Amino acid sequence: MAVIKPMIRSNICINAHPIGCARDTEHQIEYAKEQKAKKGIKTAKEGGYAPSNVLVLGCSTGYGLASRIMAAFEYGADTIGVSFEKEPTVTKGGTPGWYNNKAFDRAATKAGLRTATFNMDAYSDECRKAIIDEAKKWGVKFDLIVYSLASPVRTDPDTKVMYRSVIKPVGQAYGGASLDMMTEKISTMEAQPAEGDDIPNTVKVMGGEDWERWIKYLGDADLLADGCRTLAYSYIGPKYSHPIYRDGTIGAAKKDLEARAKNIDAVLKKIGGAAYVSVNKGLITRSSSVIPVITMYLGCLFFVQKKQGSHEGCKEQIERLFTERLYTADKKVPVDEEGRIRIDDWELDPKVQSEIDEHMKVVNEQNLHDHIDVEGIRKDFLNINGFAVDGVDYEKDITDMTAID
Question: Which of 24, 316, 356, 362 is deepest in the core (most CB within 10 A)?
Answer without folding.
Answer: 24
